[in-house]
Specification:
single chain; alpha+beta; about 120 residues
Length: about 120
Amino acid sequence: MECPIIDIDALSLLISKKRILNNVSLGVFEGEYVSIIGPNGAGKTSLLKCLMRIYTGYEGVIRIKGETIENVSQKALAKQISYVPQSIGRVFPFTVKEFVMMGRYPYLNPFTAVTGEDKLAVDS
């Protein structure tokens, strides 16, 4: 049986003693597109922030490719998942191509230049 790429099991989150997420489970398989919808305050962004390890201290388990996210380095996690927060009324000073290129940062060393491979990855 195929394992999900993202596997969230019984995730619950309290922030300032307020329950934001309650026993959320989700499996996302390779090639799937998933939309998370709901009203303001339903926990959509909090779920994503748990997935990105921005929020910790939750109950439950989050796995990426079968590995709990606590056991995945931040660099390896950044190679698998990215997050662009909503911004209303802000204009980004980047082209779409430059913005997508930022997703290549986990593959680069701090002082290396963008390679042809990086440019091909962005173009594809």
